[in-house]
Amino acid sequence: MIKTKTCAIVVTYNRLVLLKEVVEALLKVDDNLDKIIVINNASTDDTENYLNNISVSNSKVEQYLMSENLGGAGGFYTGLKYAFEQGYDYMWLMDDDSIVTPSSLDYLKEAFEKVDNVGYSCSKVVWTDNKPHVMNIPEVSSKNDNGVAFFEDKGFINVNSCSFVSMLIHRETIKNVGLPYKDFFIWGDDLEYSKRIIKHGYKGLFCEKSLVIHKTAENYSANIQYCKKTEFWKIEYGIRNRTFMYKSFKDYKYIVLYFLLNIYRSLKRKNNKFRALYLVLSSSFKGLFFKPKKQMV
């Protein structure tokens, strides 16, 4: 059997305490994981020193230091591009608050071994109370060419999208589909990329046995109805990016439905309704004319 090279790609920014947990958990994964590449998005805390020190004591850890913060989207773009150039066959994506379990990777790789034409596999992501994390629930596919039983027998569920909290992707997928949009900066890059892979004819598989804990402060999925005003800037990116995604996939009816949904959610807010409405209007407009550059490898 040909030995394959696998790396984890962790994107981090100023979250050192959690990053240490992430790295410690990854170091407990078996020999299937060859390298832990941490994309340091120009953190201003002690992240750089920590990664420098641990990479000296453990050569499995490698720091890729960015000159500026390009957001999660820019970080994952950079990480995938770098890992591809380094010759890795499998690339395992995650945030800096994603705590893997020792067998997480094994189950993700099984998807590629048992099913043909897999573009990516993704984990079951739970919060700290072991309940599903609502931010990371994949979109289950209603189309199963092989039949639902085919995937159930193998322990997988066919999905149309997933998050970058524990997504395993093969280099052939990247070669044919390209890289995520770095210009998204934050929010929606994983949704667009995972859907783009499916639209290229690949399968996406959810692996229930592959367990990962997403250690956010709360178990939430932010939208404009419930988010704090301090998170409006993230929502702005999210609406722009998703509107662009629907436009690029020619899902025009979803542009309208998504716009109306966000108008409704803004009106249901308890405060800052008019600021939210303006944000929806301006971000939706920006999304219609947004033209991020697609990058192949």
From TrEMBL:
* Short name of any one Pfam family annotated for the protein: Glycos_transf_2
Q: Which GO terms describe its molecular function?
A: glycosyltransferase activity
Coiled-coil stretches are: none
Quote the Gene3D superfamilies the UniProt record gives: Spore Coat Polysaccharide Biosynthesis Protein SpsA, Chain A
Q: Which UniProt keywords apply?
A: Glycosyltransferase, Transferase
Q: Where is the Glycosyltransferase 2-like domain?
A: 8-137
Family, according to the entry, reads as follows: Belongs to the glycosyltransferase 2 family.
In its UniProt entry, what is this protein called? Glycosyltransferase, GT2 family
Origin organism is: Mesonia phycicola
Q: Taxonomic lineage per UniProt?
A: Bacteria, Pseudomonadati, Bacteroidota, Flavobacteriia, Flavobacteriales
